[in-house]
Amino acid sequence: MKNSGVFLAYGFAIINALIVGFSFLFTKTAVMASSPLDTLAHRFTIAFVVIVILIAFKLVKVDLDIRRFKKLIPLTLFYPALFFSFQAFGLKYSQSSDAGIIFAVIPILTTMLAAFFLNETTTSLQKLSIFASVFGVIFIFVMKGSSVDLKSIFGISLLLLSCLSIAGYSVMARSLTKQFTPQEITFFMLGVGFLFFNGAALFTHLQSGNITAFISPWSDFQYVMAILFLGVLASLVTSLLSNFILSKIKASQMSVFSNLSTVVSIGAGAVFLDERISSYDIIGSLFIVLGVVGTNYFAEKRELSSAKLSFWKEKKNVM
Question: Which entry of 53, 56, 180, 213 is 20 to 30 Å from 116 by CA?
């Protein structure tokens, strides 16, 4: 039963990576019609409204005791509040290619934090696999002619803080899944995202006196379709999947799946935007896939060895 839950987590991690990979396409569409802050406000509005409807129809079960949710406040500060805030302003002061390179280190940061706070251990082969995945992402972006511009050091610093935020979320959520269900964590996360980003967006528009700019994008059909994808799939569904995955496998194992999104985005760009796939895209993608498979394969192998060792120890004690 335990193994079935783990394999289900792997399947969900792949689905999660697919959604995130496609979300880049829809984000590009959305920000053409609205500001990044308004886009975040609208996507979290859709996500929160949908989960409230699901709770109202009892399709999702959540214990609405507010006193329990106090423990989730630090988690929601890491994600979505700090993660998206640092990401938005980081991209403002740096190149988007910088983000592709910097976000590749998220699995490494997650592994380090998980080792320190959760005592999660990884074997040398797992560490090597994680680095292979990270190398694959960096290789693709560097070969595309992307490099980290030291002149945009402020933006890069914010992007690194964004990486730390998502790594912190992964580690903290891994611990909190023992006290809360994935649905409860998701509900509170989306609620905080809804309040935080709508409050920030409305405050910005009221200050500039153009509140109509907050509403006008909803008349654009393509924008609405993009926001529905970003809100329902890229916010609600990915949050549910992430929180479930973290309840079944280690934070370091899950984080390495995030690099699969790079592979998905390359494929999506080729299919929907007629972008050319180069040999370095294929080579980098192979490193990413091998890194993801290796990280989780060696984890399973280690757990199996530990289980066998425990079995023989218990048998020896019985005899």
Answer: 180
Say yes or no to pLDDT of 228 above 50: yes
pLDDT band at 299 (very low <50, low <70, confident <90, very high): low
Domain ranges, ordered by start, for the chain: 2-318
Whole-Å CA distances, 122 to 125, 130, 132, 295: 8, 10, 15, 9
Other residues' Cβ atoms within 10 Å of the Cβ of residue 273: 9
CB-CB contact of 190 with 47 (8 Å): yes
pTM beyond 0.70, yes or no: yes
Helix or strand or coil: residue 230?
helix
Return d(Cα 151, Cα 133) in angstroms, integer: 27
Residue 285 CB burial class (10 angstroms; 0-12, 13-18, ≥19): buried
Cα separation, 290 vs 284, in Å, equals: 10
> In this structure, what is the dihedral angle of CA atoms 294, 298, 299, 304, given to the nearest 10 degrees?
150
The string of DSSP codes covering 170-225 is: HHHHHHHTTTS-HHHHHHHHHHHHHHHHHHHHHHHHHHHT-THHHHGGGG-HHHHH
In this structure, are residues 273 and 132 in contact, taking their beta carbons and an 8 Å threshold?
no
